[in-house]
Amino acid sequence: MCLAVPMQITQLNGFDARCAARGVERDVSLFLLQGEPVNVGDYVLIHVGYAIQKLSAEDAASTWELFDQILDEEPQLNA
What is the pTM of this model? Predict the structure, then answer.
């Protein structure tokens, strides 16, 4: 199973970006989003270091809410 995590772009440098989510920052590639305009403040789905899709702030928040629900329902994952 693959998992993509929503993150917010904090810095841009060509096809490279610095993204953040919940206190974690990562350098990611925007190569797969060529032709789609991205800006600082936009949200993207990150999978193995690549932004694979742009998404709204609402969709990013909803995704994090679902992740929180999963963790709350599976206590052994929080250990």
Answer: 0.84
Domain boundaries defined on the chain: 5-74
- What tokens does 19 get? 């993204």
Q: Kindly give the confidence (pLDDT) of every residue in the chain, 79 residues in length, as a single tens digit, with 9 standing for 90 and above.
A: 678 999 999 999 999 999 999 999 999 999 999 989 999 999 999 999 999 999 999 999 999 888 888 888 766 655 5
Q: Write the CB contacts of 79 (distance below 8 Å, at least 6 apart in sequence).
A: none
**CATH 2.30.30.140 describes domain 5-74:** yes
Count CA atoms within 13 Å of residue 74 on its CB side. 8
Cβ burial, residue 43 (10 Å; 0-12/13-18/19+) = buried
